[in-house]
């Protein structure tokens, strides 16, 4: 992951990088996400499974092709999750949506998924706080290589799928290993194991 020392405002980031998927902004700092092929394999397989579950649920929810989350009104931060599920029925309340694919209200977001790469600290710590503060009801952390710290995934380190469910203002976390059937309160009909989405 490369970082650039230049500090950007949210507005300058949106004008220059809104349509450039590898980038996000953290406290004015441009972050190059540099996804790998295996990372994109896991994201793509999981997005397919979520899409099938969304179709079966018959809810007004969808996965945008590209989207940014602005978690704070006064801090130059814009997150680009690997997968995001939006509620189309409330997007009319989003102040930026008509002109930019930027979400500022937690109620617009049903689910956020981050596929862990070398910057695992951000997915397990900072984004957990940001997404909870925004009020996103469910957040999945897909650590398909078992990169996260022992404090987050335990010993021995192994591939882990963490479902974070917002209870009051904090996430309650449940971890699943390779063969475990993952349970999502948001998508209870989803039939999925971490093994199903690993690169072959």
TrEMBL record:
<dbReference type="InterPro" id="IPR011335">
    <property type="entry name" value="Restrct_endonuc-II-like"/>
</dbReference>
<dbReference type="Pfam" id="PF05685">
    <property type="entry name" value="Uma2"/>
</dbReference>
<dbReference type="InterPro" id="IPR008538">
    <property type="entry name" value="Uma2"/>
</dbReference>
<feature type="domain" description="Putative restriction endonuclease">
    <location>
        <begin position="15"/>
        <end position="192"/>
    </location>
</feature>
<dbReference type="InterPro" id="IPR012296">
    <property type="entry name" value="Nuclease_put_TT1808"/>
</dbReference>
<protein>
    <recommendedName>
        <fullName>Putative restriction endonuclease domain-containing protein</fullName>
    </recommendedName>
</protein>
